[in-house]
Amino acid sequence: MKNDHDRNPLYAKVEAALAADISAGVLPPDSQLPPEEGLIERFGVSRTTVRKAIENLVTRGLVEIRRGKGTFVAQPKVTQELTELTGFVEDMRALGRTPTARLLDQQVVPADADVARQLAMPLGSLVMRIQRVRLADGIAMSFDETYLPREIGEKVVTHDLDAEPIFSLLEDKYDLPLTEAEYRLEAVTATPEVARALVIDPGDAVFLIERTSYSTDHRPIDYEKLHYRGDQIRFVTRLARRPRERS
Q1: Of 59, 60, 109, 155, which one's alpha carbon is 20 to 30 angstroms from that of 172?
Q2: How far apart are alpha carbons 206 and 226 in whole angstroms?
Q3: End-to-end alpha carbon distance in the chain
Q4: For residue range 155-192, what is the model confidence (pLDDT) as tens digits?
């Protein structure tokens, strides 16, 4: 009598074997999987079976297909908790990663409808827009657009924004404590601008987080559009259930 393991389809056995090699470090992150011919010979299966196994590993986020290069073991995703207001540098250091930044652009622009609404100012008011790539261990993780009221932004950009976090500047240099924030998260596809910054293909999946941070008296002080690579990060949170009223 065959057991459940014997009844597993062949592609599932190939998938499980490769996943075990990845877990054990036999296939470390960024290493290339053997070519199809090698996997066909190793497992004694068809090309269709190998491709199905690889497809499942891609779906699980264990491997990624790099066009024109082959299939590679994916870097483990960063898991970031959305339980308190923290900045990128604080988040990455808490995870044992080395955070860096690369300033792409800074300029005064008129506030569009979204920016004006989030910063509670009239449409067309001048604001400072700062665009940066944020990296962890040298890997581009997010493309950030930060909008600040002009009078604050013009002070912030006098600092080295490749090295100094904006949150720290606001709180430590300009006495603007950040007390709370509103997050809005959705899945989108990368525009050409975002794709260039993150070194991915246009149309790839990214997380877009819109975050409005407030100072004292519920004053909106910092509005950000954070575009995170979908293949590099996952977000988790913890929710408490409201006590049920008893009749």
Answers
A1: 109
A2: 10
A3: 56
A4: 999 999 999 999 999 999 999 999 999 999 999 999 99
Decide if 62 contacts 73 (C-beta within 8 A).
Answer: yes
pTM (predicted TM-score)? 0.69
Query: pLDDT confidence of 200, banded at 50, 70, 90?
Result: confident
Distance CA 129, CA 137 (A): 26
Asked if pLDDT for residue 1 goes beyond 50, the answer is no
Tokens of 217: 């008296």
Strands 233-236 and 78-81 turn out to be parallel
3-state helix/strand/coil string of 36-97: HHHHHHHHCCCHHHHHHHHHHHHHCCCEEEECCCEEEECCCCEEEECCCCCCHHHHHHHCCC
β-pairing verdict for 70-73 and 99-110: unpaired
Ordered by start, the domain boundaries in the chain are 4-73, 78-236
Residue 95 · residue 75 · CB < 8 Å: no
**Class of residue 15 by CB neighbours under 10 A (exposed 0-12, middle 13-18, buried 19+):** buried
For residue 97, give the amino acid letter.
Answer: R
What is the rounded CA–CA span in Å between residue 189 and residue 183? Answer: 19
CATH architecture, domain 78-236: 3-Layer(aba) Sandwich (3.40)
Inform me whether the pLDDT recorded for 48 exceeds 50: yes
For residue 230, the model assigns a pLDDT of 84
Q: How far apart are CA 66 and CA 124, in angstroms?
A: 42
Question: How many Cβ atoms sit within 10 Å of the Cβ of residue 47?
Answer: 11
